[in-house]
Amino acid sequence: MSPQRFAFPKERKEPLNDASHVRNAIARFNQVEGVSETERAAAWRRIKAAAKKYGVEVETSRPDRKQK
Hints:
By secondary structure, the protein is mostly helical. It is built from two helices and two strands, in the order ββαα.
């Protein structure tokens, strides 16, 4: 699968190839580690675009990162 089909293409994490995967990417967004805030913001934009494409409802703001 092309890297552009992932929320985090450099890491090839969270594929966005259908509605089910988009919902999964939203649910797991805060579980992805080892990425910068810039990469996280870009991933959220990709997730929102894929959600629109596949008709998945999503909040306009991204989930807050939970502190450990």
